[in-house]
Design a protein that fits this description.
The protein is built from one helix and four strands; from the N terminus they run βαβββ. By secondary structure, the chain is α+β, with helices and mostly antiparallel strands. The two termini are 23 Å apart. The model is unreliable at 1-11 (pLDDT under 50).
Length: 104
């Protein structure tokens, strides 16, 4: 079973937003050589922390090793393929248990 999750804040997802979600999800799957049954989540999040970009895009995916996570400091619609981390960083994106990341 393929699990796909897509989120865009708490607002409605328009057709342009859906296309952007699909595009970034597909780039993530291809960049990190993810299987069809590995879950990929793309979300646009508003940040109110001082010094934080007001809107950022979160990429989260799960493999047999666990949860991988990264942030792109721009709105979802502005994300381009070159904004994703390089493939060799896949293991560096792994969130270890107890790492203290409470953002997602």
């Amino acid at each position: 079973m393929t699990a796909k999750v897509a989120m865009l804040g708490f607002g409605k997802i328009g057709s342009g937003d859906t296309a952007a979600l699909d595009r970034v999800r597909d780039w993530t799957r291809a960049r990190f050589s993810l299987a069809d049954d590995e879950t990929v989540m793309v979300s646009e999040v508003a940040c109110s922390v001082p010094g934080c970009p007001p809107i950022e895009t979160h990429l989260v995916f799960w493999t047999a090793l666990g949860r991988h996570h990264c942030k792109i400091f721009k709105p979802l619609a502005a994300v381009v393929e070159d904004d994703l981390p390089p493939a060799f960083m896949k293991n560096a994106l792994l969130m270890l248990d107890g790492a203290g990341c409470d953002c997602c």
